[in-house]
Write a structure and sequence with these properties.
The structure is a homodimer. Chain A is mostly helical. In chain A, 69% of the residues lie in helices and 3% in strands. In chain A, strands 1-2 form a two-stranded antiparallel ribbon.
Chain lengths: 217, 217
DNA sequence: CCACAATGGATAGTGTCGCTGTCCGATAGT
DNA sequence: ACTATCGGACAGCGACACTATCCATTGTGG
């Protein structure tokens, strides 16, 4: 198929498809003549992935490119790719003294929690820096309920991750597996956040009887 | 204090402070003369909140404004404010037929899962639409492992939410409580995602022995 | 076989976001 | 008195994610 049909099949405008091709999110079609190319089902699927990661997962075009590059390239470790997929900037502005101190304290907290659970994780993992940043920020904001919840978060996320990894192990080929991990991780973040909101509403109603909720439907 | 000191204390540039004032993220200082204002500790704290929500939570300026408005105004239901805080756009482009169908199926899946857990949640909750969107997207992408995990996600998030709500119940005044909920929810999303990545790394190592990890430190 | 739509490719333009820079006349502090 | 700072308004900027236009092919229905 050519670009027009690809556009119709995927619901993405021709202009955007051209843009994604330029940005390397979508591999070029197979050449049928010096300036003509043919696309196939793989391109339709890829476009759906792209839209899912961008619209639902909230990734930037650049992050989506990196993540998809890791899906294509068996040599890129997954956690590196998924680190890029963190919507959070993880950037620090001015490394003021108290900032550094807060970060150091947060890092000790995390390290202790990780050791206690017996997790084998590297501090190369971008998620490590992100977690430290959140903890440090929370501490600077005054209360530290979040740090108190850290143990629980780790416990439940280990449960979640174990199931996720288990499901993914017996897939088929490696490409589909990796793709499943990536999509599951990125979209899973969004789903988990939404489910957390629903759970919070339910629990606050349950514990406080705060808001009268009319049932669905 | 005046703007210069507020800037120094908070690490936010004067230009940005003026911008936040314009955008309503920061309440105006108390007037000491027709064109002079004084700021206090509350402004320093507020600025820290703003930076935390934007930098760590990944919220937009507009979302941050809405969330903080809810913190200030007791009449705005919390879940409405926190719905705005979802980084995900939750937008749909072309409601094609199969799109609608996928959404409807996803909505039935969610409703069934919610009923099974006995959750009292309203479909007014923005998180409901987000969750439906994620499920629908995942279904359209081919496999539906995510839907298979939905029950687990709900189970662990109920556990998490119960603890979070419990911690927040016995706070002191309502303002501090609400603030704690908001910050905990927004930063918690980021923390949970990061912890999930770490857990995934740990579990994939544990189950597959996939990557040799050198220990921290 | 030929007019005419569609294509690939390049480049420029658009709208939004989150600031940043500059200017102004009015204080504040010394 | 004088200079730094202030608040306030507004223009500008760079990044981002497209979108529009142009053009020289190419494909295709009549």
């Amino acid at each position: 198929m050519r670009v027009g049909e690809l556009s119709r099949r995927s619901g993405v405008s021709v202009a955007s498809i051209k843009y994604y091709l330029r940005e390397g999110l979508l591999p070029p079609g197979e050449r049928t003549s010096p300036n003509q190319a043919a696309y196939d089902e793989a391109h339709v699927h890829r476009l759906r992935m792209v839209r899912a990661l961008i619209d639902v997962g909230g990734l930037s075009v650049a992050a989506t490119r990196d993540v998809l590059a890791a899906v294509d390239d068996p040599d890129v470790p997954l956690y590196v790719a998924l680190g890029r997929a963190s919507s959070t900037t993880t950037a620090q502005d001015d490394p003021a003294d108290d900032q550094d101190e807060a970060r150091a304290a947060a890092e000790r907290t995390l390290a202790a929690a990780v050791d206690e659970r017996g997790w084998a994780v590297s501090d190369e993992n971008p998620a490590w820096r992100t977690a430290v940043g959140v903890l440090a920020t929370y501490a600077r904001l005054g209360d530290d309920d979040l740090s108190a919840q850290l143990g629980l978060y780790m416990q439940v996320m280990e449960e979640v991750a174990r199931r996720e990894v288990a499901v993914v192990v017996d897939r088929g080929d490696r490409a589909r597996t990796v793709e499943g991990v990536v999509v599951g991780t990125v979209l899973g973040d969004t789903l988990l956040a939404a489910v957390r909101r629903l759970a919070q509403q339910h629990c606050s109603l349950e514990l406080l009887g705060e808001t009268p909720i009319r049932p669905r439907g």
